[in-house]
Amino acid sequence: QVQLKESGGGSVQAGGSLTLSCAISGRNRVTYDLGWFRHAPGKEREFVAHIRWTEGTTYYSDSAKGRFTVSRDNTENVHLQITDLKPEDTAVYYCAATRATLRLPYLYNAVAYDIWGQGTLVIVSS
């Protein structure tokens, strides 16, 4: 059974950087594409980024372009680097996995992802 576990959240001042990680376990050589979403207080869950596991193609929301970078390493981990953090980046960040090769615009949609982690909280103070 595939499980996802996020880490790397915390409290940071505006202008700082964080790298969130998503550890994937139980994949058993099955390919999953990964997405990052965030849920800020009082707002709907929002797509942030997506990475195709095999070729590494990445996709970003318009608000994430330029400050967010999604990547994977040679182990079972996907990372989300966030630079120049802003108070509006305060949210719980989730990684999510799908076995499907999602095309635009479906990969923006949370319901297209089958498996979710517990989330990691990022708080950005001004």
Describe the structure.
The protein has 126 residues and is mainly beta. 0% of the residues lie in helices and 48% in strands. The chain is built from no helices and eleven strands. β4 and β5 form a beta hairpin. The chain is globular.
Order of helices and strands: EEEEEEEEEEE
Low-pLDDT segments: none
How many angstroms does the end-to-end distance come to?
A: 40 Å
- Total E-strand runs: 11
Number of helical segments?
Answer: 0
Residues in β-strands, percent: over 45%
The overall pLDDT, averaged over residues, is 94
Shape: globular
Helix share, percent: under 10%
Major beta-sheet overview: 7 strands, mixed
Derived from helix and strand composition plus strand pairing, the structural class reads mainly beta
| Radius of gyration, taken over Cα atoms and rounded to an integer in Å | 14 Å
Keywords:
seven-stranded mixed β-sheet; 126 residues; four-stranded antiparallel β-sheet; 11 strands; mainly beta
In short:
0% of the residues lie in helices and 48% in strands. It is an all-beta fold and 126 residues long. Strands 2, 4, 5, 6, 9, 10 and 11 form a seven-stranded mixed beta sheet that branches. Strands 1-3-8-7 form a four-stranded antiparallel beta sheet, with no helix packed on it.
Topology:
Elements: E1 3-7, E2 10-13, E3 18-25, E4 33-39, E5 46-51, E6 58-60, E7 68-72, E8 77-82, E9 91-98, E10 115-116, E11 120-125
Parallel strand pairs: 2-11
Antiparallel strand pairs: 1-3, 3-8, 4-5, 4-9, 5-6, 7-8, 9-10, 9-11
